[in-house]
Amino acid sequence: MFQSFDVIAEPAQGTSRVADLRQALAEAGLDGYLVPRADEHQGEYVAAASERLSWLTGFTGSAGMALILRTRALLFVDGRYTLQAPEQTDPSTFTIESLIDNPPKAWMAANLHKGARIGFDPWLHTIGEVGALRKAAAGCGAELVPVEANLVDGIWKDRPAAPLEPARIQPLDYAGERALDKLARLATAISAGGADCTVLTDPSSLAWAFNIRGRDVPHTPLPLGFALIQAEGRPLLFIDKRKLDRETEAYLTQLADLHPPATLDDEITSLARSGARIGLDPSLAAEQLRLLVDKAGGKTVDLTDPARLPRAIKNAAELQGARAAHRRDGAAMARFLCWLDAQPAGSLDEITVARKLEACRTQTGNDMQMPLRDISFDTISGAGPNGAIVHYRVNAKTNRVLGRNELYLIDSGAQYEDGTTDITRTVVIGESTGEMRDRSTRVLKGMIALSRLRFPPGTRGMDIDPFARHALWQAGLDYAHGTGHGVGSYLAVHEGPQRIARTGAQRLEAGMILSNEPGYYKTGSYGIRHENLIVVEPPSPIDGGEIDMHGFETLTLVPFDRRLIDTALLDAGERAWLDAYHARVRHEIAPLVDGEVRAWLERATEPLTAPRVLSDAQRTL
Fold first, then answer.
1. 188 with 179: CB under 8 angstroms?
2. Helix, strand, or coil here: 589?
3. β-pairing, 197-200 with 277-280?
4. Does residue 62 belong to any structural domain of this protein?
5. Where is 102: in which H helix or E strand?
6. pLDDT at 471 over 90
């Protein structure tokens, strides 16, 4: 198994650990301390040694920040975790605040007293983040204080060791471009950005640029390290050589000078003293790097990570790999859903089902000679009310039976060497209610709206996000998360800069892979999410039109539960899209399965029946 269902944190742990941290605050002369869910690379995916927020609070979500004061403790989370955070933390210790509506900088500006000193680890906060926090603190006469030794580490006596998992070369057949050529492109971009060098702090950028993969963080094939890319001269790669076998070390030595990670500070300091203009991405680079340059009297240049956009725009080999990975994953999902349909209601629990899905992926990958390397995130396996917790992570304590006449939401993904997948399907166990069908169909309408969309060059994710919400809005409904995130190529399942959300300011470019996942969540009852991965197509003409328009190609090949589709809510174009999608699923997946699975697939992809007569309320859609 690539995932564990053990209980890894308890609400009660926060009380004594916060007390220990407060003692450390007093000894350091501080009034508060910030504890983000981050590591030195500012990534969403962190090793066990960097799970400081979870260790301190009990909250296991992938985003959040705690502010521990002398007499108060706050935990800031976003809309995905508004249900999860209160369940995982001690309410007598922590107050839950919104990371979006009242983030730490806003709370600090409104609540800190004059003279308050708030400590932080400059390795764990970005330059931009610290700038905003420092401004907020200064506005009320408080001070943000960098602390050299992390205070949580000082009280975490059994903290795990840093990871030393092996790195490996990503074959050119899947990468599609030589690392030497990628590095040359980066050097050109650095020069054009007015810098002499830059630090690649994002492990995804490092993995992409050097065509390597690793296993230093859960479910994401990343080797942790840094790279210093120069406009002129050889790159410097800071990676622990214990992660490299002879072949990988020889390969990397051809591309860069290898250095221990601990020497990064000295190299940055030396470059700063030499007068080099050092490019740092304010949204990704740690404040510690800026402090090093400033202390040495050097000059920093605001420079967006030059690998970020090229990494997001997949080349032909990466897109070919993504299509192959999704066909393989579609076959695994067909086997899984066929099995799930055949089980009696009440006979399964969330953990059993998640294990079965992983087994289906493992078997299918082996059968098709492309082994499952990992899952792409911990499976979200939510029955009934657990499905309403957007990023629910089942464990032995929360494990729930899939009850009769309930909805079951399963959001999962796979890491294959040729591509990364992410898919959500919601199915009914037994009979569905009219409300369930209504909500599910409105979510499906939003997905279809994006799938069918044509849009001009220059369109941003924020421009198209409302299309996915329209059918829900018309019924006074919505969901508290973005509609789509970028996806890497055998890399991170959550990849920037592209996203479909109210905050998605990045232009959508041909070759970008995104998720398309509107949802609806009824607290205490059920959750619904439908998710496919889509890729932005190059602009092409429309008959009679004047502007070539982008569109989306759908990568995911898995049927939707017909029992949750109210055909009366779908218009003719939506029904035609769904019938065509199911026909394509049947055409591409049926040759990969046989027996009862193929029979199930044939039934699941039959054309929809004619719609019922619409009510006046439904006609408003």
1. no
2. helix
3. parallel
4. yes
5. none
6. yes
| pLDDT beyond 70 at 620 | no
Q: What is the pLDDT of residue 616?
A: 45
Number of neighbouring beta carbons within 10 Å of residue 110: 11
The tokens describing 503, both together, are: 């905050």
Residue 519 vs residues 308, 390, 529: alpha-carbon distances, Å:
28, 9, 4
Domain coverage including residue 88: 13-155
Q: Is 160 within a domain?
A: no
- Residue whose C-alpha is closest to residue 228's, from 292, 310, 313: 292
Taking Cα atoms as reference points, which of 558, 525, 83 lies closest to residue 357? 558
* pLDDT per residue as tens digits for the range 186-234: 999 999 999 999 999 999 999 999 999 999 999 999 999 999 999 999 9
Directed axis angle between helix 595-604 and helix 572-589, to 10°? 170
Alpha-carbon distance values, 143 to 31, 111, 136 (Å): 10, 13, 9
299 and 317 assigned to the same domain: no
In CATH, what number is assigned to the domain containing residue 260?
3.40.350.10
What's the token pair of residue 176? 């599609």
- Write the DSSP assignment of 399-466 as a string of letters: --B--TTEEEEEEE-EEETTEE--EEEEEEES---HHHHHHHHHHHHHHHHHHH--B-TT-BHHHHHH
**Dihedral angle, C-alpha 592, 552, 209, 199, nearest 10 °:** -140
d(CA 37, CA 10): 17
- Return d(Cα 460, Cα 466) in angstroms, integer: 12
Consecutive H or E run containing 146: strand 143-146
Q: Alpha-carbon distance 554 to 582, whole Å? A: 12
Q: Give CA–CA dist 257/264, Å, rounded.
A: 12
- Going across the sheet that includes 226-230, the strands are 257-259, 236-238, 226-230, 197-200, 277-280, 299-302
Report how far apart, in Å, the C-alpha atoms of 488 and of each of 172, 391, 415, 513 are: 16, 20, 10, 7
Contact between 354 and 378 (Cβ < 8 Å):
no
Would residue 7 count as lying in a domain?
A: no
Checking DSSP bridges between strand 495-500 and strand 419-420, what pairing results, if any? unpaired
Q: What is the DSSP letter of 244?
A: -
Rounded CA gap, 370 and 564, in Å? Answer: 33
Are 477 and 441 members of one domain?
yes
Last residue of a domain, one of 155, 190, 212: 155
Quick one: which of 238, 147, 256, 242 has its CA closest to 201?
238
Q: Enumerate the β-bridge partners of residue 106.
A: none
For the stretch 113-139, pLDDT in tens is: 999 999 999 999 999 999 999 999 999
> Distance between CA atoms of 591 and 576, rounded to whole angstroms?
23
